[in-house]
Amino acid sequence: MMQTTHKHLQIVLEVAIIAAFAMALEYIPHKTGISGVEMSYGLIPISVLALRRGVGPAMAAGLTWGLLDMLLIGIGEGSVLNVTQGFIEYPIAFTVAGLGGLFYKPFQKALADNAHAKILGWTWAAVVLGVVAKYLCHFYAGIIFWGSYAPKGMPAWIYSLAVNGGSAIATGLLGLIVLTALVTMAKHLFLPKATGRLAAN
């Protein structure tokens, strides 16, 4: 019982740390130089937690990150137009960024087996799923709520696809590069302490 309680407390602590870290990364300049296209660095720690702890903790960290981002940055910058749009683009979009945790079990098995090709495959799958899920929310919100900002004559869906698609590609490429490096050189980051027997691998 005590061991289970300790594990739950450890997971809650990791969720809080990852959410805070993801939020801190939002203060680093992340524009790519193309109008409206930016990288979301916070998806990197969320993806690490997703592969380390699974979908529940990762989505909890994403939700916390989204609420913090909305309150600390989004509202102040005018990125929250109304309750519905704010809910879609912050709590929902940031929460589903943790869906990469759906690949937690096969990833951990590949890690235990030291199957490098499978480790990379599940890592990339987790990053791509998290990025696609998050930016699909932004894409739909872009069509419904931001369409009036599209250049004259450009359909709202094309404008939203260009902006959010560009952001998704930039974020995804960065995430793939960083996660590949981490899972190759720092596997211990993906191992819960309860399974630390692999830390030496």
Automatic annotation (TrEMBL):
Superkingdom of the organism of origin: Bacteria
GO terms for MF: thiamine transmembrane transporter activity
GO CC field: plasma membrane
Pfam families listed in its UniProt record: Thia_YuaJ
Presence of keyword Transmembrane: yes
Transmembrane stretches, start-end: 58-75, 87-107, 119-145, 157-183
Keywords: Membrane, Transmembrane, Transmembrane helix
Protein name, as recorded: Proton-coupled thiamine transporter
Lineage of producing organism: Bacteria, Bacillati, Bacillota, Bacilli, Lactobacillales
